[in-house]
Amino acid sequence: MEASRKLICRQRQVFFFFFFLGLAQGGSEFRRYSVVEETEGSSSVTNLAKDLGLGQGELSRRGARVISKGNKLYLQLDQETGDLLLNEKLDREELCGQTEPCMLRFQVLLENPLEFFQAELQVIDINDHAPVFMDRDMLLKISESSPPGTKFPLKNAQDMDVGRNNIENYIISPNSYFRVLTRKRSDGRKYPELVLDKLLDREEEPELRLTLTAQDGGSPPRFGTAQVYIEVVDINDNAPEFEPPFYRVQIPEDSPIGYLIVKVSATDIDIGVNREISYSLFQASEEISKTFEINAMTGEIRLKKQLDFETTQSYEVNIEARDTGSLSGKCTVLTQVMDVNDNAPEVTMSALTRQIPENSPETVVAVFSVSDLDSEENGKISCYIQDDLPFLLKSSMENFYTLVTERPLDRETRAEYNVTITVTDMGTPRLKTEHSITVLVSDVNDNAPAFTQTSYTLSVRENNSPALHIGTVRATDRDAGANAQVTYSLLPPLDAHVPLASLVSINPDNGHLFALRSLDYEALRAFEFRVGAADRGSPALSSQALVRVLVADDNDNAPFVLYPLQNASAPCTELVPRAAEAGYLVTKVVAVDGDSGQNAWLSFQLLKATEPGLFGVWAHNGEVRTARLLSERDAAKHRLVVLVKDNGEPPLSASVTLHVLLVDGFSQPYLPAPEAEATDAAPADPLTIYLVVALASVSSLFLFSVLVFVAVRLCRRGGAASVGRCSVPEGPFPGHLVDVSGTGTLSQSYQYEVCLKGGSGTSEFKFLKPIVTNFQGHSPGPDIEETPNFRKDFGFSIQ
């Protein structure tokens, strides 16, 4: 806020100052001072205290100040001494330009009491600027016909100084043609004027370069220069001239129409349009006008028609050169016609054979004669053909020649020859004539058909549709025409047991092979046969190739279950002791597939079970194992349905039903009585009861047979009284040995020995470990081991 008040107060003081200054201006006295421009700053102009009649120190007490209009103050006041000093160097040209005199007004203000004085400071000019031409290069075009005394005003120079320091006069550099005058305009400025003193000649001096100098009146004087270029404008004052005025040329008589004979040239020392020249035939006869023509712009003389030395040997042609005015010059062209070798040799054909058979001995192809209408050297002839051809030229008599084959020709190597007979004379320049003959080599059947392969391997998937295209054999013949037409056929089979005629057929025209009937991979996996290719030449040539057909397997056979048998009169029942641990091997489903490869890869899956979660089937080997420990609550009878599926596309499958019976031991019947069954379970369907009874009967009979067989075998080895040996009890279960060969998914054969423990009142079964047979089919005697429960260590397959 304080700063704002001070600013307002200051503005009011300035306003009142200029108000009182305006009131007092009318009666004030002017004081005049002067200073030379470029005077150094701080230089003294005058002592104001003395001029105003004031004592020393009074200016300071009264608050004296110097004020000037504008923003820039060129003067300053030393209040102690009263001296009026320059603030800086003053440039008169910058302050006043061309105005003369150059006056700077200022006021001296005394504040206490208020009093002011008006004064003027004159800035005196010095010669500190040289004259300058705005155009340092001037161009004047002056006709060479301009008379002496002609005046040409030039552009003036400029000088920033004034008065006597401004331009005083102009000076031109020394020359033979011009002088310069200094003229003065109404505004006082001076300009140069060029005066022609002597007639110009452009051909002698086409241009002049002068230096124009402007000089001012200062002391010392200063100078400024400019270049004056004077171009002398041409007038038509010179006629065209030929150099040389006479031309002698020689031209061959066989020169073509339009041939350039000679180019004449005239020059005109004038310039511009005055030196433009046009050419023409001068006083030409009709014969010359028909024979020659000249280009009006370039002076080129060319032929209009063919020359003949025998008719005219020379021509004299006059040429005129005329400029754009009426001035002209003339010359003569003597044209001599030269005799040349203008007749080419000629070939006359007397006999010609255009087609010859291949493999033929020396054969005459053509008989011809040559001639030339010229004489002497120009009439002498040489004749030849290309070097890379199997032909020869033989001279039979004067100017007669015979063209023959050099060796037997092979059409398959090259079927056509272009023979060029070249005849050249000995003239200068040499002329030649070429005669071309096309010789065709006709075909002979000398190449048998060749198969692209010596053997072919084809593949076809079984169960194909009849007449299926299974492949193609191809043979080519290098001959042509009928000799290259190939016919295909089936040759008698190598194996007489292969019914080739009912298996495949071949298209005799294109070699396509077709399967005549549906093939079965399981019956025929591959077969071979030969095909023949014969051409239609005379005699016919042939060749043969071997074809092997591979039948690819298709998934057309479902898996077949070998064990357990499904077509038996009674189902097979597997016995499992209730004490069996988890993972106990119940049995193994054995199956085979008639296909091959991945179509025969089998996988097993438990499809249905009486009690899910009790049994499991291994997917890759078909082993049926318990999935957990058995309990008393588990039903005694179980029915399992196992699905056997191959890996074909689409996959085929078969299913097998397994009956599993859980037993505690052989001391109890392994088939419960119908009454007990009826008591423990809900009433069953009569058909189910019948099936269970039948299954139990068949299983008992089978088990009894096995036990009897095992007991007999064991008794023969060690006797009935040996401890730890099996004896045949009097009970209903004799010992028995079961031998199963490794077929289907089993890798080897297994044997099981089953017997009853002798003297056991409960008729408890005793089971042995499996015995692996050796390669001779004999079983070593195993150690007999009593077990309280039924035990099986591995499944078995039936072959």
TrEMBL record:
Quote the Pfam families the UniProt record gives.
Cadherin, Cadherin_2, Cadherin_C_2
Matching entries from SMART domains are given as:
CA
Question: Where is this chain's protein located in or outside the cell?
Answer: Membrane
One annotated GO biological process: homophilic cell adhesion via plasma membrane adhesion molecules
Query: How does this protein lie in the membrane?
Result: Single-pass membrane protein
Q: Which UniProt keywords apply?
A: Calcium, Cell adhesion, Glycoprotein, Membrane, Repeat, Transmembrane, Transmembrane helix
Q: Which domain of life is it from?
A: Eukaryota
Give the record's GO CC terms.
Answer: plasma membrane
Q: What species does this protein belong to?
A: Balaenoptera acutorostrata (Common minke whale)
The molecule here is called Protocadherin beta-8
Segments crossing the lipid bilayer: 689-712
Q: Which SUPFAM superfamilies match?
A: Cadherin-like (SSF49313)
Q: Mind listing the GO molecular function terms for this protein?
A: calcium ion binding
What CDD domains does the entry give? Answer: Cadherin_repeat
Question: Known InterPro entries for this protein?
Answer: Cadherin-like_dom, Cadherin-like_sf, Cadherin_C, Cadherin_CS, Cadherin_N, Protocadherin/Cadherin-CA
- List each copy of the Cadherin domain by range: 74-133, 134-242, 243-347, 348-451, 452-561, 576-676
